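Per reviewer request, we include the raw input and output of the structure prediction for the construct analysed in the revised manuscript.
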Amino acid sequence: MVKIEREENQRKGRFAIYDEGKFAGEMTYTWAGTTKFIIDHTGIEEAFGGKGYGKMLVMKAVEFAREKGVKILPLCPFAKAEFDKNSSIADVRF
């Protein structure tokens, strides 16, 4: 079972993904004011590569942004590439 959890500590946060309870990767972000956050890093553990977990993390961030009515600035190369490929998430891109 795959589970994604969001953790936040003041201005910084992350979405962490777990596979059968084992840490599989994370996407970190930093709030830039109250209306947007910057995705600055996405990393998947080598043992869990190729399973689409990075994309799942980006989509979870998009879901969160839509719920909160905020925008995402994808500075992380992986997240930026996902936004560039998927026009259905352009509504939350800053």
